């Protein structure tokens, strides 16, 4: 089975990659994260995703598009609903790329995070799968949380301090 793994960042993709490979799955990464703010943070995460992919021998498709204005235009009126848009836009992108690339299925490293809304993400992923006619592979990667942290530190990967958007940055640093 060939899976396209939406890769939000290098550290969060490590455990899903290892877990899927242990199942015999052929994994290719897909980086598209137009929500990350500021630009320097976007570059750090993009580069850490590429570094992890290189170290782990995972092919990585870089959709290197910093579309802050588009992200803000879709969430500024209702910032409390930003996560739904953020999940849907990135899962739509990976589902479309999976279909175009002939992958059997897609999933996301977002399902590794203890801080994300898994039910909302799963619903958005299933909607993306239906919209693009490609299978969604659900895995709850949270049990590997500590293993992923340990491995990312071992590999010297950049580890972010907040989810990615300007709102999560504010929540993290203004407490």
UniProtKB/TrEMBL annotation:
Reactions the enzyme catalyzes: epoxyqueuosine(34) in tRNA + AH2 = queuosine(34) in tRNA + A + H2O
Record-listed E.C. numbers: 1.17.99.6
GO molecular function: 4 iron, 4 sulfur cluster binding; epoxyqueuosine reductase activity; metal ion binding
Keywords: 4Fe-4S, Disulfide bond, Iron, Iron-sulfur, Metal-binding, Oxidoreductase, Queuosine biosynthesis, Redox-active center, tRNA processing
Disulphide-bonded residues: 163-165
Top-level class of the enzyme under EC nomenclature: oxidoreductase
Matching InterPro entries: QueH
This protein's record includes keyword Metal-binding: yes
Family indicated by similarity: Belongs to the QueH family.
Name of the protein in question: Epoxyqueuosine reductase QueH
Gene of this entry: queH
């Amino acid at each position: 089975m060939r899976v396209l793994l939406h890769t939000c960042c290098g550290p969060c993709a490590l455990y899903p990659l290892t877990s899927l490979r242990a199942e015999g799955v052929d994994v290719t990464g897909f980086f598209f994260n137009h929500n990350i703010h500021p630009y320097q943070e976007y570059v750090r995460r993009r580069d850490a995703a590429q570094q992890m992919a290189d170290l782990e021998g995972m092919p990585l498709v870089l959709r290197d598009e910093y579309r802050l204005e588009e992200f803000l235009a879709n969430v500024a009126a209702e910032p409390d609903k930003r996560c739904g848009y953020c999940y849907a836009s990135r899962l739509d992108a990976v589902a479309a790329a999976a279909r175009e690339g002939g992958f059997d299925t897609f999933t996301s490293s977002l399902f590794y995070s203890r801080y994300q809304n898994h039910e909302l993400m799963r619903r958005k992923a299933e909607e993306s799968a239906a919209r693009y006619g490609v299978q969604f592979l659900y895995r709850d990667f949270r049990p590997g949380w500590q293993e992923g942290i340990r491995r990312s530190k071992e590999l010297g990967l950049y580890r972010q301090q907040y989810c990615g958007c300007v709102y999560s940055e504010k929540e993290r640093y203004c407490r």
